């Protein structure tokens, strides 16, 4: 028996990276999984891998129409969703003066408006199901300012506020809403970036893995986290614990 037996999970960005790790783990723990993404080939390949435990739905999270269709197909295939993990995101690494308005609009559409639409889309079916769990995947950039990441970071700061307000509003329906704030995680998104924290500056001294984010999401999605709502959970190897100065060895003195 898995800890998600009988659950139905919609996972945005579920075709690759952290989302795919969540899809695999949730299916292994007994959930039926809906992979909602725009990466059609990767999504369909993952459905084949999960052998009957998942379906794929092409979903642009910034589209209200796509959300309606995703939930319709979820209900047709598995019943009302009881878990929503919002992993879909786009990154943006530019200074403010080099970032035109249309780039900010797109970042906000995917990273902030998308999760808002997702929570609205699942609210009614989750109420019918008697409750559920929503996990919004943010970023360490939502816990401190980062130069060159103002657009991306502000979208994730906004997601933190949206999460906390939704937790207060949805609690009466038995729906918990939490956020995970990943640090530098070894995914294709990180490998496309040249601005991530180098491992020596992370207290645990390595990048995280998608599977470690999936384990955090699993806990919050399951009944083991039944009394937890409205939190930000950093999963970052200690990156946001404080300011890194230099390695400990530099503080050693020779007598």
Explain this structure.
By secondary structure, the protein is of the alpha/beta class. The relative contact order is 0.15. Strands 3-2-1-4-5-6-7 form a 7-stranded parallel beta sheet, with helices on both faces. The chain has one domain: 3-Layer(aba) Sandwich (Rossmann fold). Helix 1 crosses helix 7 and helix 4 runs parallel beside helix 5. Pfam families: adh_short_C2. Belongs to the short-chain dehydrogenases/reductases (SDR) family. It is an enzyme of class 1 (oxidoreductase).
Enumerate how many helices there are, as a single number.
7
Q: What's the mean pLDDT score? A: 90
Largest sheet: 7 strands, parallel
Largest sheet, order of strands side by side? 3-2-1-4-5-6-7
Q: Would you identify the regions where 5 or more consecutive residues have pLDDT less than 50?
A: none
Query: What's the CATH class label?
Result: Alpha Beta
Strand content: 5-15%
In CATH, what is the homologous superfamily? NAD(P)-binding Rossmann-like Domain
Enzyme class: oxidoreductase
Organism: Rhodococcus oxybenzonivorans
EC number: 1.1.1.47
GO molecular function: glucose 1-dehydrogenase [NAD(P)+] activity
């Amino acid at each position: 028996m898995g800890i998600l037996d009988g659950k139905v999970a919609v996972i945005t960005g579920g075709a690759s990276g952290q989302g795919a790790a969540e899809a695999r783990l949730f299916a292994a723990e007994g959930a039926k999984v809906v992979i909602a993404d725009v990466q059609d080939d990767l999504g369909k390949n993952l459905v084949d891998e999960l052998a009957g435990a998942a379906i794929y739905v092409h979903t642009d999270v910034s589209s209200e129409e796509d959300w309606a269709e995703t939930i319709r197909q979820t209900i047709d295939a598995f019943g009302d969703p009881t878990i929503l993990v919002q992993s879909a995101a786009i990154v943006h690494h530019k200074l403010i003066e080099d970032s035109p308005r249309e780039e900010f609009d797109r970042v906000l559409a995917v990273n902030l408006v998308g999760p808002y639409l997702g929570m609205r889309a699942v609210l009614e079916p989750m109420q019918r199901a008697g409750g559920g769990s929503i996990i919004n995947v943010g970023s360490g950039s939502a816990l401190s300012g980062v130069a060159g990441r103002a657009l991306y970071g502000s979208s994730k700061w906004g997601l933190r506020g949206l999460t906390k307000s939704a937790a207060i509003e949805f609690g009466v329906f038995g729906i918990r809403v939490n956020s995970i704030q990943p640090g530098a995680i070894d995914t294709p998104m990180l490998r496309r970036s040249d601005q991530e924290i180098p491992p020596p500056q992370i207290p645990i001294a390595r990048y995280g893995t998608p599977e470690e984010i999936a384990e955090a999401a699993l806990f919050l999605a399951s009944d083991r986290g039944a009394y937890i709502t409205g939190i930000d959970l950093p999963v970052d190897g200690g990156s946001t614990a404080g300011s890194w100065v230099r390695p400990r060895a530099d503080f050693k003195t020779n007598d």
